[in-house]
User: Fold this.
Amino acid sequence: MALVKNLYIRLYFIVMMLYVFLNKGVAYSFLAELMWATGIVLLLLNRKTLEIPNTRSVKFLFFFLVVSFIYILKGIVSHSLFDVIRDSFIFQYGWFVFILFLFQNEQKFIWDSLFKIYTWFPIVGFCVFIAQFFVPAISEFKLFGTIPLVLYKYGDMGVHLLISSLMLLMYSDRITSKKLWILIFFIALDFLIIAAYSRAGAVTYIIGLLCFIYFNKDVVLKTRTRLVLKWLPLVLLIVIPFYISLQVSENFQGRTIGLEQIKDNFGSILGAGVNVNSENNVTWRLIWWAKIIDYSFTPTGIFIGKGLGMSLADSDGILSLDDELRSPHNFHLNIMARFGVLLFCVWMYWIYLMMKPIFKKQLGTLSLAISCILMAFLLNASFDVFLEGPMGAFPFWTWVGLLFITDAQT
Assistant:
């Protein structure tokens, strides 16, 4: 059994690396689901030796899993099994939290693996961008289904770039000074690319980083942060000309690389919208969200919601450029629509339990970093279909598990 577990945890982070590096390009590989199913088998085989903390956060997570299973039984009566199961993973991916408890004694390996993945991410992220826009032979290559292998969602990239930044701040002593500044160059470059293509990705990165810097109490980290901020203007003087030289065509939302696009995006966030495409992208979401809130506050919507299996886009009469869109670009309202207002309130309370220690300044450096990372995941999921699929859910629930384990060991 020890050999099997050892092999599993190594495969676990290889698969996670693929989702972090390639994102939507491996969304239909079903590798995360394979790790999920294998992990549950390991849970069953090791149930007698499994040690899970008896906290409210853990209890609520188990409650979500049980409710989701009940909704599966209810949904298969009137909808296809595949669609019901797919929608149930809105919570069922949460089993990764309990799977990680099998490896509480493997923390050194886990954090070494995460450091390697996220140290390389700023460079890999830029290479994926170059391949997508400048290498036609690669940009159209499909390995899984109909999705190009290098098609990356920039909101998701903002979350992973934040993780890279926090990793480098905490563990910069593990790499050479030269490599550190090279990575800072790519982080700055990647952020400008993200800011042009995804308002949610840029805001998520900024809020997560500022929260970590503000609430961090570690003197050494404060010194490192001040050093990076001191030299950041010089880094930007080098990065911006290179960034401006990247000439690419507009994407399907009418956005492209450039400082003007970044200005329009942030202007739109602040309510000074000047770009019609950006405003239209906001409008259809707000209309859909308002519709969900409206029908959720009815007797049926409050208690049980619409359930699993149906496409909410079709059910709510929403027209979108994405024919495969099934859920609103808001994970929390997806929960409200499918499970009802009462479960939505429990979900928000669960988030409150996890985020409350940040603002009370009760966290050590590692727990604070993980909490800021989870905040970034949840923020990005408020504006995109992110945690419904494996490319967001697999890393998210992994970080939830790491937070629970870290808190249990402190």
In short: DSSP finds 19 helices and two strands in the chain.
